[in-house]
Amino acid sequence: MASGSAVAPLFLLWLLLLHNVPLALPASPLARSFELDYEEDCFRKDGAPFRYISGSIHYARVPRPAWRDRLLKMYMSGLSAVQVYVPWNYHEPRPGVYDFVGNRDVEAFLDLTAELGLLVILRPGPYICAEWEMGGLPSWLLWKPDIVLRSSDPAYLAAVDSWLHVLLPKIKPRLYQHGGNIISVQVENEYGSYYACDYGYLRHLLGSFRALLGSEVLLFTTDGTQPEELHCGTLQGLYATIDFGPGSNVTEAFGAQRWVEPKGPLVNSEYYTGWLDYWGEAHASTSSVRVARGLENMLQMGASVNMYMFHGGTNFAYWSGADFKDQYKPVTTSYDYDAPLSEAGDPTEKLFAIRTVISKFQPLPAGPMPSPTPKYAYGRVALQKHADLLDALGVLCPSGPIQSQFPLTFEAIKQAHGFVVYRTQLPRDVPDPATLGAPPHSICDRGYDVTVAGCQQGLGWWDRDGQTTLRVMGRAGDTLDVLLENMGRISFGANISDFKGLLGNLSLDSSPLSNWLIYPLDIDTAVQQGWPHAALPKPSRRGRAGPAFYTGTFETPGIAWDTFVKFPGWSKGQLWINGFNLGRYWPRRGPQQTLFVPGSVLHIGRPNNVTVLELEALRAGSLGPAVCLQAGCGAEGEVEVMERDPAQQGLSTMPAAAAGKSRGGSE
Ligand SMILES: *[C@@H]1O[C@H](CO)[C@@H](O)[C@H](O)[C@H]1NC(C)=O
Ligand SMILES: *[C@@H]1O[C@H](CO)[C@@H](O)[C@H](O)[C@H]1NC(C)=O
Ligand SMILES: *[C@@H]1O[C@H](CO)[C@@H](O)[C@H](O)[C@H]1NC(C)=O
Ligand SMILES: *[C@@H]1O[C@H](CO)[C@@H](O)[C@H](O)[C@H]1NC(C)=O
């Protein structure tokens, strides 16, 4: 009986638990566990067999005011979890400078997932791909031009570690074992698809994740199903999962996972519900029937599945990435992805087909699916030319130009996104046309408005993989300008050290031009500070083609509903409303024809300011330049009646060009 006093409290605790009396104690770590079961080939959550049905959503592609709505619709679809990427470059814009406020408040997003009863599969990178600018890596890594990304290069590892020391401590208290809702954490992303195949790097990441998150959390990898992908992407101590779309044979694909994980749960971490779009290619779509059938097959086998994407959203501002396959392929502004929830967050036929499949395997939550959000046709917004870009350099580049003998890249002048003007002077009289040119593939990614003495030369633009020469004339001392645009850094494959700007010399009849003034433009700050700027000269050169700003305002009738912008007669550029950068428009190239405008960027009771930067050419209709918010863009500016079909309105990409085309989704 000597030990009686020590036993009594334990006995009491046992009695309380036995009678299911709620304890006011924090959940014991032992009570919450999420583990692999290699005997029964499943996960175990709190000791019970478990499999998840999950969907991907990227908080960086959804306006914060819409987070709850999208997550609620995912919950109501019957999902038990969401899979979430953390884009490093979204949070660390400069080395050691962090941003976790507003749309970047990842902790607030995670709080919402927990509130709604969703589990989280977290994918903190450091590389994420995601068709996001540079696959989520900060472009400042390229300030050291010879850095070897995604490898054991000490410069790269040092940057990764200081980031993980900021991010992962925010994650640790949210792990399932610690009372949170994060059940597992992915290390790197499809590393087996990367040429480096550096196990030292993966081992280093494993060490950092363990040191910062503890020994209990389930860490995993995701790779394609090819032997070399599984060979280079997997590591002892990281559970290997795979990804494949409805075009793959499920038995064969999971057979590939079994090469590397003979036992344990079957997991498809990216089951493709649709696919991304590139500028200049057909709109991608995947049939609901195929998506639902493949999902049912996997669930039948007892697999855990994450659907990529469940809600794609939008590449606002400059965040879209690009691919490289024979040539540079920039991704569109819309990341609708033909996903079950459309770009505007509306349930589609595909969502209901998926929900029906899920209902055969686990109960759906009670209650109806929320309806599509209302859209509003605010109509035609007349715009006026406000300034030629080249006349506004004082406002767009207040710190003044950088001087350099030869052109410098964006990275060399620490410009992450957007636009830079390169300016020099003709060194001699050019009375007869001479060839002005850049080496092939050195215009990254588009050059506009090559002007000599303010006159546009040639077509008006140069493409990265197109012709980069033209004929010019002029006098010694004439100013020569060219505007360079970063269209998004490559996010997948070997070429992710994707430098931007003028990567080679511009030459006049083969002799390099020198003595450059380089203007890194901060257009977003200028736009956010409100147009018009008193400091701006009025557009002087009437009828001049080339990059120019157009502005206008519109009022809302007491509502701020979502809408879509059309660009009648416009070619290519960038759109802001109330200083919010809605992304690139490029109806001339397509397939995307409109931009999604979330209602949360609109003002009620005061004018909404619209700013358009048109880079190429505007062919305005008889009523003058205008953009149209879902109406008012009929032929010759007549009011056009919009269809009120929500499924159609949820798609900002025009499927017409691609009718009938369908992509397998498994690459
Ligand atoms: C999938 O692959 C397995 C094994 O190769 C094969 O037996 C089966 O017929 C295939 N299924 C389909 C639908 O092609
Ligand atoms: C991209 O990477 C591949 C493979 O390493 C290489 O062959 C090719 O030259 C690279 N292309 C560019 C434009 O850097
Ligand atoms: C530009 O030309 C100069 C002079 O010929 C040369 O030294 C320099 O390497 C060239 N720059 C590039 C990026 O080719
Ligand atoms: C909107 O434009 C008006 C003038 O048209 C200007 O006074 C105001 O500062 C602008 N506001 C913003 C937020 O851009």
Description:
This protein starts with a helix and ends in an 18-residue tail after the last helix. The longest helix is centred in the N-terminal third of the chain and has 18 residues, at 154-171. The strands form eight sheets. The chain has an eight-stranded parallel β-barrel with strand order 4-5-6-7-8-9-10-11, surrounded by five helices. Strands 16, 17, 20, 21, 22, 24 and 28 form a seven-stranded antiparallel beta sheet that branches. Helix 7 links the parallel strand 8 (218-223) and strand 9 (239-243). The protein is α+β, with helices and mostly antiparallel strands. It has three domains: 28-359, Glycosidases (TIM Barrel, Alpha-Beta Barrel); 379-384 and 525-648, Galactose-binding domain-like (Jelly Rolls); 399-521, Jelly Rolls (Sandwich). The model is unreliable at 1-27 and 636-667 (pLDDT under 50). It contains 13 helices and 35 strands. The site of one 2-acetamido-2-deoxy-beta-D-glucopyranose has 3 residues, from loops. Keywords: Glycoprotein, Glycosidase, Hydrolase, Signal. It holds the Pfam family BetaGal_gal-bd. Residues 43-360 form the Glycoside hydrolase 35 catalytic domain. It comes from Melopsittacus undulatus.
Keywords:
alpha+beta; 8-stranded parallel barrel; TIM Barrel; 13 helices; about 20% helix; binds 2-acetamido-2-deoxy-beta-D-glucopyranose; Jelly Rolls; globular; 3 domains; disordered C terminus; about 675 residues; disordered N terminus; single chain; 35 strands
Question: What's the layout of helices and strands?
Answer:
Layout: H1 4-18, E1 34-37, E2 42-45, E3 48-50, E4 53-57, H2 67-76, E5 81-85, H3 88-91, H4 106-115, E6 119-123, H5 154-171, E7 182-186, H6 199-213, E8 218-223, H7 227-233, E9 239-243, H8 250-260, E10 267-272, H9 288-300, E11 304-311, E12 322-325, E13 327-330, H10 349-359, E14 379-382, E15 384-388, H11 393-396, E16 402-404, E17 419-425, E18 430-437, E19 443-444, E20 446-452, E21 455-456, E22 461-463, E23 469-474, E24 479-485, E25 501-502, E26 507-508, E27 511-512, E28 516-520, H12 523-528, E29 548-554, E30 563-566, E31 573-577, E32 580-585, E33 594-597, E34 608-614, E35 626-629, H13 646-649
Helix pairs in contact: 5-6, 9-10
The structure holds 2-acetamido-2-deoxy-beta-D-glucopyranose (4 copies).
